[in-house]
Amino acid sequence: MRTLVQKSYVLFLLSVFSSHLAWSQTDTAPKPPQNQGPKIECETGYAWLVMQFNVENAFDTVHDVGHEDWEYLPKDFPGRLEACKKLPEHQQARCLKTNWTEAKLEMKMDKIAKIIDAGPKKPHMVSLSEIENQGIADRIAQKSGFTRAIATNSPDERGIDVGLMFREVDGLKYVRHAEHDVSGETKKTRNILEVEFTDPAGEKLIVFVNHWPSQGAPAEARLEVALKLAKIIDEREAANPRVNIVGIGDFNVIEADRPDPFFQGIQNPAWRNKLRDLHSEYQKYAKSYKGDNPLRKMPPGTYFYSAGGNQMSWNVLDRIFYSEGMVTGKYGMKMDVPSYEILDPDFMKGEYKFPPGSPLEGSVVKGIPQRFSHDAEDAASSGWTDHFPIFGVIRQAKLVQ
C-alpha cells in the first residue's frame, strides 16, 4: 500500500513539474488566481522555543497556611510533627521521614536548571507544573536565567500551582496575565494561568498553562476542566479572531480515559476552535519521514507508571496544544511540528526493576525519568524529576503581499 501511494505521489509531482515547465515556455501561461490574500512565508522572522516541565513537588521550606505541605518542611518546623500524625495512615510515614531543608531545595533548583539547559537552545518560555508558589517560580527563573516568572495561587489542597517563566527577547513582549479557577464542585484543582504576548507585527499569542486533576480523580474531572478551558478560548477568539492560542502543561490524560477529555473537550471535532496536539501531529510527521523514523530517538512518553510493580505503562501526560491558525501561520505565528521533542538527557535517565511478587517480577525498564528523592542528602543519589520535559518551536510567519 505504501509503495502504491509513493508511486502515485511521484507521478503527481512529475505532472506538476511538467505543467510548470510548459507554463514557463509559453506566453499564454495561466494567470495566477486573483484576490487570494497575502502569501504566508513561515520560515522567516523570529522563532520562540516553548517548553513544558513538571518539576515534581518543588516546595519551599516554609508552611503555606491552608495547604497540606507538611511533608516538605524541615523536621523541626513548628507544628509539623502534630500535622503529620493527622494525615491518612499511608501518608504519615513519608511525612514523618522527610526532612526538607534549604540545602536540599537549592540542590533541586540546580537540577531543574541543568535539565532546562539540556535542550537544543535556551527556551523563550517554560511552563512549570508542581510548583508551590510565586517564590519557587522566581527561584527557578533566577537560577535558569529567565527575566520573569508568573505563578498561580490555586485552591489545590496540597498547595500545588502552575507557572510560566519567560524571556522578553527576540520580539516577544509580555502584555498581561490572568488566572482562572477551574475547580469542580467536589474536586479542587490547579487554576489555569493565562499569559498574553505580542510580537513586533502586533500579532497576539495567548498561552494557557494547565495542570489538570490527577489520575486519582475520575476522567469526568479532567473533562470538566477541558470544557472550562474551551469556554475561555471561545471568549478570547470572539474578542480577537486573529489570536494564536497555545494550551500547555501536564494534562494527566491517558488513552484509557473515558470520557475522553481531549476528544470530547479541547479537540472535539464539532468545536469550531478545536486545538491540535503537537505530539500527535509529530507522530504523523515522523511516520511520513524519509529515512530513519525520528520517533525511535525519543522515549515512548513523558512519564513512566509502574503501579507499585503491577503495570508497565508509558504515558504522554505533558502536552502542547495549539490553535488551527498556527497550522498554516495565517495569523502571524506557526507551530513548527518537526521541532517537537521529548527531552531525555542521559544524565536524567534511570531504570525500574519490578519487585519480587509482582506480575512482572525481575523485568527491568531502562531509560525512564529518575524521580527526585526529597530524602536524599546529596546530588548523586537524589535523582532528577519524574517527568521528561517537552518542547516545540513557534515561528513568526511573515506575511508577504
What can you see in these coordinates?
- By secondary structure, this protein is α+β, with helices and mostly antiparallel strands.
- It has two domains: about 40-60 and about 100-400, Deoxyribonuclease I, Chain A (4-Layer Sandwich), CATH 3.60.10; about 65-100, no CATH class.
- The chain is about 25% helix and about 25% strand.
- The strands form five sheets. It has a six-stranded mixed sheet. Strands 6-7-8-9-13-10 form a six-stranded mixed sheet.
- A hairpin with a 5-residue loop joins strand 7 (about 190-200) and strand 8.
- Helix 4 packs across helix 5.
List the helices and strands and how they pair.
Layout: H1 2-24, E1 39-41, E2 47-58, H2 80-85, H3 89-97, H4 102-116, E3 125-131, H5 134-144, E4 148-151, E5 161-166, E6 173-180, E7 192-198, E8 204-211, H6 219-239, E9 244-250, H7 262-266, E10 275-277, H8 278-287, E11 303-305, E12 313-315, E13 318-323, H9 325-328, E14 333-342, E15 349-353, E16 364-369, E17 390-396, E18 398-400
Parallel strand pairs: 2-3, 8-9
Antiparallel strand pairs: 1-18, 2-17, 3-5, 4-5, 6-7, 7-8, 9-13, 10-13, 11-12, 14-17, 15-16
Helix pairs in contact: 4-5
